[in-house]
Amino acid sequence: MGFKDKVLSSSNQFNYYKDNYEKLLNENKQLKQKQNQLIEENEQLIKEFELNKQIIINKENLSTESNYCPYCGRISNFEPYGVVKREKAMCPYCKSLERHRLIYLFFERNYSSIFKNKDIKLLHFAPERIFYNYFTQFDHVDYYPVDIDPETYAKRGLKLKMKVNMEEVPYGDEEFDFIYNSHVLEHVPNDFKAMGELYRVLKQDGVCITVVPLSGNEETLEKEEYNTPELREKHYGNKDHLRFYGLDVKQRLESVGFKVKVSKLEDLNLTEKEIELFNVKESLIFVCTK
What we know:
This protein is 42% helix and 19% strand. By secondary structure, the protein is of the alpha/beta class. Strand 1 and strand 2 form a beta hairpin. This is SAM-dependent methyltransferase. It comes from Methanobrevibacter ruminantium (strain ATCC 35063 / DSM 1093 / JCM 13430 / OCM 146 / M1) (Methanobacterium ruminantium).
């Protein structure tokens, strides 16, 4: 065999092994993706099993009037709550309301594996005690609960990181993996500036979960003449609110750069019996990414 033939033969052998190596790498990558998918599906099945097991175990204690709190796992008769009283709104044990139970189920379905297994930095505005306790249980979560009035939280036994005005967040660009704010933006004078700050401090691959009270109308109601506690309560539903958001809150969030997906109650795939048992109501959850 001449020199030229030897070179060609070696070259063909190299390409053969190279092609097979790349093929094996690709197959291995696909297998790992499938493995991760199966792990996530298994974790979801375990969660659903544990939830259903608790209901089945306590089935003899359930009456037609009973409720089950998915957060604290207790059976009781939920209590009325609100300026205009909503029947069966609050769990008497953990004090969760309809939206708290909905958001808890949303977190458990979509993010608990991340909270449990991935090191993340999480910024939480105006922390509810329920989610303060929820986030602090995870070893991998570097938790930053903040508010404009931390002294009030200290009186309730909740220690916050620092005083933070959402319009002027004192953290660096792209610092947080996860941001959660629920029923906060309606209290902020310049909500567009606040939304811009949320976008600024969120990492490129991060997630910002936003929940606000919604009127059900298309447009947000916000008028300068509604400037007294009485007028705000009449038109916005709360004397401390500065606007009543419409469905255009999605466009407001998008206007500062966010890509926004809307999660609904139906996305949790709950049965009618579970919705009744947990007493969760429709509350749109805005999932914001860059």
